[in-house]
């Protein structure tokens, strides 16, 4: 993570939250970064979450706030970078056309921003 120019963090949504393993990693990475010249600051990145039906907003916000507290610049998209997947009548992620279009737009915006920041 330290050497990456761009960071995309993705997580499934469980009980309106990012999976605990991801949050544990991010908490530890934040402390390590702060003790080492805040090495996330100035990077480009953003979150993606996938849920069956609900809980995206809380999980997406958890990841977004992690980027903000670490000084990472987050490009926008046409909507929040969330996708629908799972069972119980919900579509599979590859069938979520709006979600895929949003994430594709986000990736393009991220690439554009990284070219501007790192050139």
What does this structure look like?
The chain is flat. β3 (44-51), α2 and β4 (82-84) form a beta-alpha-beta unit. By secondary structure, the chain is α/β, with parallel strands linked by helices. The model has no long low-confidence stretch (mean pLDDT 92). It has a 4-stranded mixed β-sheet with strand order 2-1-3-4. It has a single domain, classed as Rossmann fold, CATH 3.40.50. The relative contact order is 0.19. It is built from 3 helices and 4 strands; from the N terminus they run ββαβαβα.
Secondary structure layout:
Layout: E1 6-14, E2 17-18, H1 20-35, E3 44-51, H2 56-69, E4 82-84, H3 97-118
Parallel strand pairs: 1-3, 3-4
Antiparallel strand pairs: 1-2
Mean pLDDT: 92
What is the assigned CATH homologous superfamily?
Flavodoxin domain
**Helical element count?**
3
- Output the radius of gyration: 15 Å
Oligomer: single chain
Describe the strand arrangement of the main beta sheet, using strand numbers: 2-1-3-4
Task: Report the sheet-strand fraction.
Answer: 15-25%
Helical residue percent band: 40-55%
Distance between the termini: 20 Å
H-E string: EEHEHEH
CATH topology: Rossmann fold
**Helix/strand structural class:** alpha/beta
